[in-house]
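User: Sequence recovery, please. Input:
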C-alpha cells in the first residue's frame, strides 16, 4: 500500500487586494499555515509524501520572504517529502524562481521540473507534467503514455491544468485528455488548477485548494489522502480538512411581510465562528422599502463579527407605494429626489437595468432618511 497526500493551489503570497484592513494579511498567513496543516495531516495518517500539483506560489516572482519561509517550514517537517510541481502561476518560464528554489530547497523538498519518471518508493513511479509556461498550448501529460516504468509499478501522474472547460484559466489547446489515466496506465492522476476538490473519474482527481480564496466553490478548503494497494487497484481517496477560513454564500429570499432580521439571523453562522468566515448574503424576492432598509442595517450590525460580510441585493425587487415616500420626507429636495426615483423605477420605457438602478437608489435614499431621523 502506497499512501500520500495530494494538494495544490496554495498560491502562497496571494495579495487579496480586493479586501481592506488587516484581512489580506490574515488570508496570506493562513495560506502559509497550510504547510503546517498538511504536515500534521500527514503525520497523523502515517504518510511521508505530499504532492503539490502546481501553483504553490501565486506568481512567477514571489517575494523572497514568501519563497524562503515556505521552504523553511517544509524543512522543519523533515520526515515528510514535499514534491512541488510548476503550475501556470509559477511555471518554468520563471527561470529565476526555479533556479532559486533549486539552490535553496532542503533535502526533503523535491522539484518536479522535468517530464520524466521519478521514484517515490520501491515499485512506485511519479510521472510529473510541469507547466512550461502560463499557457503551454498543448497537453503536457501526453508524454506519460509512453513513459517507461518497471513492470507492475504503481504509476502516479502529477499535472496542473484544465481537463474540461470548467478550468480556472482555460485555453482549449491546453486541455488535458480526460482519459489520460487510462491511456497512460496510471493508478492515479493528481491534478491542480480547479480550486474545489473534484472527482473526474475513479483514478483522476482535483484536490482543490487547501485554503479557499473565493466564493466560487461551495466547499471548504481540503486536501486528499490517497491510498493505492497495487497498480491494478482503484485508489482510495479521503478528503482531509485543511481550511482555517470559510467562504460562504447565503441565499436570503424575502417576500412582502417577511422580517429581514429574523430571516438573516436564521442563515448566519454562530457568532463564535464568524471571525474566520467570509460571507456573502445574496438577497432575492420582493420587499418594501422598510424591509430593505432593515436588511441593510442588520448586515451593517453583523459585519464587525465577520472576517468579511457583504450584501448582494441586486436580485431583490423593491415594492414601493406613495405612502412609503412620506417616510423619506413630505416635501423639499429629498421628496423631489424620491419622487423622481420612484417614477423611474416604474417607467417601463426604461430598461430593466435602469429601473433596477433607480429602485436601488430609492432604497438607499430611504435608509439614509431613516438614519438621519433617528
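Assistant: Recovered sequence (374 residues):
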Amino acid at each position: 500500500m502506497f499512501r500520500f497526500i495530494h494538494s495544490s493551489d496554495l498560491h502562497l503570497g496571494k495579495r487579496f487586494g480586493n479586501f481592506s484592513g488587516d484581512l489580506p494579511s490574515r488570508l496570506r498567513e493562513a495560506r502559509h499555515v497550510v504547510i503546517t496543516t498538511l504536515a500534521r495531516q500527514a503525520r497523523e495518517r502515517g504518510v511521508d509524501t505530499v504532492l503539490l500539483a502546481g501553483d504553490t506560489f501565486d506568481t512567477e516572482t514571489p517575494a523572497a520572504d514568501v519563497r524562503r519561509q515556505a521552504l523553511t517550514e517544509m524543512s522543519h517537517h523533515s520526515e515528510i517529502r514535499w514534491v512541488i510541481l510548476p503550475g501556470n502561476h509559477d511555471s518554468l518560464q520563471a527561470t529565476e524562481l526555479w533556479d532559486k528554489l533549486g539552490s535553496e530547497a532542503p533535502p526533503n523538498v523535491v522539484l518536479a521540473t522535468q517530464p520524466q519518471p521519478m521514484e517515490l518508493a520501491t515499485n512506485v513511479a511519479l510521472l510529473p507534467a510541469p507547466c512550461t509556461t502560463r499557457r503551454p498550448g498543448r497537453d503536457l501529460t501526453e508524454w506519460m503514455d509512453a513513459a517507461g516504468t518497471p513492470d507492475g509499478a504503481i504509476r502516479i501522474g502529477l499535472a496542473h491544468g484544465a481537463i474540461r472547460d470548467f478550468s480556472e484559466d482555460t485555453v482549449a489547446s491546453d486541455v488535458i485528455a480526460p482519459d489520460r489515466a487510462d491511456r497512460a496506465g496510471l493508478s492515479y492522476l493528481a491534478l491542480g488548477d480547479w480550486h474545489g476538490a473534484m472527482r473526474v473519474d475513479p483514478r483522476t482527481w482535483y484536490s482543490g485548494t487547501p485554503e479557499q480564496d473565493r466564493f466560487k466553490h461551495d466547499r471548504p478548503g481540503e486536501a486528499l489522502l490517497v491510498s493505492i494497494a497495487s497498480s491494478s487497484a482503484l485508489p482510495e481517496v479521503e478528503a482531509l480538512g485543511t481550511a482555517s477560513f470559510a467562504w460562504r454564500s447565503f441565499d436570503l429570499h424575502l417576500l412582502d411581510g417577511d422580517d429581514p432580521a429574523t430571516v438573516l439571523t436564521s442563515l448566519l453562522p454562530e457568532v463564535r465562528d464568524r471571525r474566520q468566515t467570509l460571507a456573502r448574503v445574496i438577497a432575492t424576492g420582493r420587499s418594501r422599502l422598510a424591509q430593505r432598509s432593515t436588511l441593510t442595517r442588520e448586515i451593517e450590525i453583523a459585519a464587525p463579527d465577520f472576517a468579511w460580510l457583504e450584501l448582494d441585493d441586486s436580485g431583490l425587487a423593491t415594492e414601493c407605494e406613495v405612502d412609503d415616500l412620506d417616510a423619506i420626507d413630505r416635501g423639499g429636495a429629498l421628496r423631489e429626489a424620491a419622487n423622481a426615483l420612484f417614477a423611474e423605477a416604474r417607467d417601463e420605457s426604461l430598461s430593466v437595468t435602469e429601473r433596477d438602478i433607480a429602485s436601488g437608489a430609492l432604497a438607499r435614499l430611504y435608509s439614509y432618511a431613516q438614519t438621519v431621523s433617528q
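The first strand starts at residue 2 and ends at 7.
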